[in-house]
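Write out the 3D structure for:
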Amino acid sequence: MQISGTDWHLTAQTEAAVEREVATQAVGVAVARARAYAEALDLHEVTPLEIADRGLISTPASPVQAKAMRTAAFDMVGSAPMEFEGEDIVVSATVEARFRAR
């Protein structure tokens, strides 16, 4: 027997939940940075004006390159059990934000 590759996916429900969590974390980082920048200028009131996915506020960035597909071949020897372990699925989010600081 030969297996020429595997393809791992998140279920639609899991993908949506993970994307929400990662987006929330990205916004949290943006807010924390805005507060740090404002405090460095001795400003303390930070109000978000716009928050969006990267490219929706300013000029779009370069397109993200597609992830390379990996192919693996496995040979069964006798009745030895086969174990499959997929690579980690990485989910990330990048946001752009504009804030007003006073």
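The beta strands are 2-3, 46-53, 74-75, 95-101.
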